[in-house]
Give the backbone structure.
Amino acid sequence: MNGILNIDKPAGMTSHDVVGRVRRVAHLKRVGHAGTLDPDATGVLLVCLGVATRLADYLAAEGKAYRAVLALGATTTTEDASGEVLTRVDASQVTEADLAGLLPRFIGEIAQVPPMVSALHHEGKRLYELARQGITVERVARTITIERLVLSDFRPGISATATLDVACGKGTYIRTLCADLGAALGVGGHMAALRRTRIGAFGIETAIALEDLTPENIAASLVSPSEALAHFPLFRLTLESEAHDIAHGRSLLCTLPEAAVVRIVDAENSLLALGRTDGERLHPFKVFG
């Protein structure tokens, strides 16, 4: 059983919990996920089965989309609703126009300082491990890309809230984006809720609810490894000798233009390997046995 499941993750479970549930349903040990979601977050979580676990990094690197709720007037230790409140002020002076006018500053390539409660490493330890010990370390700002940032709802008041639709690149922390927006408005803020609506070509509209997954429907819910990487160029093998060469890491003549990643498939469109081209030859670098 090889492929990718588009799971609609429920709140209250870690991404690892979801993987464990899929393992039990599929009766398969080789299961992983691409693109971690925090326990309180919901939405698209890609779960990889069998050889597809070797594609997790490629899937996680795809662009993502979220619907987030920004709570203004309160900052927290984790930049989301799970943390302890650090400050609380009256946010009733903030208007919808204020927030809408601010959003363009956060679109495009921007600098973002990762939160302390994150899985990034510092001197061999995860930042969240240090945060649990009450230790705060300086983090270097990273360049991230926000492709789309739209205000879809605003509710004014002492604890004003806003619903934001965000499309972004890899490495973006939506809770930090919420905290930064609150800081820019002068009242502080945190992420009150988060739902991921897309990773790459996998959207929430085709996701299956975890509780609906059964041994009887799991195979029909799988997306093939080749289809999951459909945005990469395709090279289809027609000769058995070609498949033998690829299986043994040998390159082939190829007329495809230069590309860093190429899907190498057989006549049935089964993914045999990933390769790269130099404009003349196709060189496999990840072979699936």
In short: Helices lie at 15-26, 56-60, 96-102, 127-132, 174-184, 218-221, 225-228, 240-247. DSSP finds eight helices and 19 strands in the chain.
